[in-house]
Amino acid sequence: MHIDKDLVAASATPLVLGILADGESYGYAILKRVNELSGGRMQWTDGMLYPLLHRLERLGYVRATWGTSDVGRRRKHYAITADGREALAERRQQWVVVSEALKQVWEDVRPGPAVIEGWA
């Protein structure tokens, strides 16, 4: 299933903040977690994630520090800040409203009349 890029973009900030709310992480692990959470239906790239992380860092929602991987490579780690947790809570409330509105719309949608072939 293809997920529209506008929907992916709208959900990116709360997804990353939500992942970081579980604990500090780094780029590749965040990409892998998004893939896991979506059952492989959301395929993010480095080109999408890092500009988002940099924007979240500028906004004060995440803090970046350099660390070292198990094999000795330098790796940038990201952690959610208190402001990031507040932003996540606000986004969560917004998504609940959107989700409930969509649910009501979809429940109200009535299927069209059944078409029975051969009847005319």
In short:
This protein is α+β, with helices and mostly antiparallel strands and 120 residues long. It has 4 helices and 3 strands. The relative contact order is 0.14.
Descriptive account of the structure:
Strand 2 (62-68) and strand 3 form a beta hairpin. This protein has helices at 5-21, 27-37, 46-58, 82-108, and strands at 25-26, 62-68, 74-80. Helix 1 (5-21) packs across helix 4 (82-108). It has a three-stranded antiparallel β-sheet with strand order 1-3-2. Helix content is 57%, strand content 13%. The model has no long low-confidence stretch (mean pLDDT 92).
Topology, please?
Layout: H1 5-21, E1 25-26, H2 27-37, H3 46-58, E2 62-68, E3 74-80, H4 82-108
Antiparallel strand pairs: 1-3, 2-3
SSE topology string: HEHHEEH
Count all strands and give the number: 3
Looking at the structure, what is the overall shape? elongated
Main β sheet profile: 3 strands, antiparallel
The span between the termini is 36 Å
Percentage of β-strand residues: 5-15%
Could you say which structural class the secondary elements and strand pairing correspond to? Answer: alpha+beta
